[in-house]
Amino acid sequence: MHEKNIAFIxxxxxxxxxxxYFLGLHxxxxxxxxxxxxxxxxxxxxxxxxxxxxxxxxxxxxxxxxNDDKVLKIMGTHGLSLFKDPVFSVxxxxxxxxxxxxxxxxGKIDQAVTQQSYDNVAAALKLLEAKTTGKMYFFFSVMEVExxxxxxxxxxxxxxxxxDNHKLKHYESLDDVEVIYKPSNALSDIYEAAGSNYTKDExxxxxxxxxxxxxxxxxLSRSNKSDSFSKFYSFFLEEVVC
Length: 242
Fold this sequence. Notes:
The chain has helices at 13-26, 70-81, 99-104, 111-129, 146-150, 153-157, 166-172, 183-193, 202-209, 214-223, 227-240; strands at residues 4-10, 31-38, 44-51, 58-64, 88-95, 135-141. By secondary structure, the protein is α/β, with parallel strands linked by helices. The chain has a six-stranded mixed beta sheet, sandwiched between helices.
């Protein structure tokens, strides 16, 4: 059996940590997982082996682009350079919310702006795919990857009894978390009501992500609370673990 070599190029630290735990839950015994960060001059640095396997079925690299606009750019540079093996795939993941979205539609979700974001990525991806025989994919977390956490209230409750508060219950009552313009602010509201702070630093994201278990992901996939997660999860089941 050939190794599956996959590079995930993500917007930032939150996506990188979430993805690392997500992959560790689903294919822990078959994966060699390395993370890296895009540094100065777009060079990759801070390589760190997170899961070691001498004979892996999946060899995975997660690259933190450290910027939403850089995800596509890094897919077009480092992503293309990785296609030395025909089983290599490159996957982009970033938030729908960004500075440009906020400029075009400050404070509210606009379907025309959202669709334009999808269209721009699709056009750019088509140009990249023309340069390689490898597989390239791109996904948005809508509006931010924090929405995926909000759609898993059981994970947030594991942080402590104070997190089972009125703010969490409010967001839990929503049928669709993708109606929240800035989910990171919503998560901050929950933390504040618990007497804590959502800082988005490594220790904060690690603490939250470490509580995710397989049932949390399964429940999220069945809940229809996040279409963007459902699309990403379907891709994972059909293209990665197939």
